[in-house]
Write a sequence for this structure.
């Protein structure tokens, strides 16, 4: 490494590196595995802080449903260890490396928590921050600290786990994360309704979410997007596809799937995916694969929007009527993914945020010059922006950790 790049091998060494960066006023880019380097604002830093030395599963107690690992531990390694015990990360974290045209396609568990990422089960299971029990790390002051523990219980004091999730490495460099895990479902079925308009799909998903059938996935793919799926029942539909997932013991899943098919009986067609195809389909939704151009990944803008579920159809169609692209609805319409075609002015930011009535829009992928030019994250109201700056100043007063990755100048 050059004199400005660091790869600490211990927590104490990491604290020394950060303290040196503070003294030298040398901003550092934090890197675990590097799969999300294109996510967030483009930064100008003097060097890199390579955290790959903090890797590996350190504690796993399947009976207690808890695991601890170094933040740079590959997500695939975590998932493989859990699968061996028939367990999983219930919040279904996405694998985002392929979105960034990055040679490293498998991200890290620390990156998942730092970016607070979650997949299709988010509306039921919660986000990443709801599953983080504790962590250790080094603040931007060069101080080692920890928060939380290894069990789920009420505690007094500040819940720093909630604060660290979604901070994108701007507050501290984590050295260990402890999180809860859950058993995997015995059976997974997905009921498909074909030919619904976006508005009809939102209503159908709302009805399913409000039913007693305990659904765990609700998404809608327009016809052109459904045709890109690798699941034959979806790509061969020749129509839009609205998908509703149920999980659990076999008799319960069979009963609930049948009830949902009856409830959706007015659709032009009804089909169901059993466990194998369901797993493949929801993995695609998790990683937004149907919006991508196969193996060729470019820097074309990819946006993630969070809106009120009943506003999902109106928002998505309103934007795509003005900006060429394609999209899909997840979380019963509460999360929209939009892949825009090249040439949209400033990545379509004004059209997108102008069409939204509340909520927020995040640029997940874009060229470096675009990410430096526009607010990648939804601009905050002045009081919230001031609070964000005070928090940053409290943890990292000299701004040495990922400065400007989320907000310019912070």
């Amino acid at each position: 490494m050059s004199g400005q790049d660091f790869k600490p091998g211990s927590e104490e060494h990491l604290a020394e590196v950060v303290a040196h960066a503070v003294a030298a006023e040398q901003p550092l880019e934090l890197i675990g595995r590097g799969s999300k380097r294109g996510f967030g604002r483009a930064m100008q830093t003097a060097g890199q802080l390579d955290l790959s030395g903090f890797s590996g599963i350190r504690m796993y107690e399947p009976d207690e449903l808890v695991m601890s690992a170094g933040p740079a531990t590959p997500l695939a390694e975590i998932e493989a260890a859990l699968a061996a015990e028939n367990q999983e990360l219930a919040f279904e974290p996405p694998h985002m490396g392929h979105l960034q045209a990055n040679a490293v396609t498998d991200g890290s568990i620390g990156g998942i928590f730092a970016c607070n990422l979650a997949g299709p089960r988010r509306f039921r299971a919660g986000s990443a921050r709801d599953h983080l029990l504790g962590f250790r790390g080094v603040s931007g002051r060069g101080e080692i600290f920890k928060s939380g523990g290894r069990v789920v219980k009420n505690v007094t004091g500040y819940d720093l786990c909630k604060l660290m999730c979604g901070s994108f490495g701007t507050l501290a460099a984590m050295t260990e994360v402890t999180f809860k895990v859950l058993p995997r479902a015995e059976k997974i079925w997905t009921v498909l309704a074909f030919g619904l308009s976006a508005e009809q799909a939102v209503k159908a998903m709302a009805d399913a979410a409000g039913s007693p059938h305990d659904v765990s996935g609700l998404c809608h793919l327009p016809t052109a997007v459904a045709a890109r799926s690798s699941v034959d029942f979806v790509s061969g539909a020749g129509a839009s596809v609205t998908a509703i997932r149920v999980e659990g013991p076999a008799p319960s899943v069979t009963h609930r799937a049948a009830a949902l098919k009856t409830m959706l009986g007015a659709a032009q067609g009804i089909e169901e995916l059993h466990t194998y195809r369901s797993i493949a389909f929801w993995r695609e939704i998790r990683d937004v694969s149907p919006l991508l151009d196969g193996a060729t990944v470019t820097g074309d803008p990819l946006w993630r929007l969070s809106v009120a579920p009943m506003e999902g159809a109106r928002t998505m169609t309103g934007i795509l009527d003005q900006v060429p692209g394609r999209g899909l609805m997840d979380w019963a319409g509460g999360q929209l993914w939009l892949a825009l075609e090249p040439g949209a002015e400033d990545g379509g930011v004004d059209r997108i945020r102008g069409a939204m009535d509340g909520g927020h829009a995040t640029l997940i992928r874009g060229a470096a010059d675009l990410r430096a030019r526009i607010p990648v994250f939804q601009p905050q109201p002045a009081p919230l922006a001031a609070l964000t700056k005070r928090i940053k100043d409290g943890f990292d007063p000299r701004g040495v950790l990922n400065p400007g990755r989320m907000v310019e100048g912070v």
In short: The chain has a mean pLDDT of 91. The radius of gyration is 22 Å. The chain has three domains: 1-184+379-410, 187-289, 292-373.
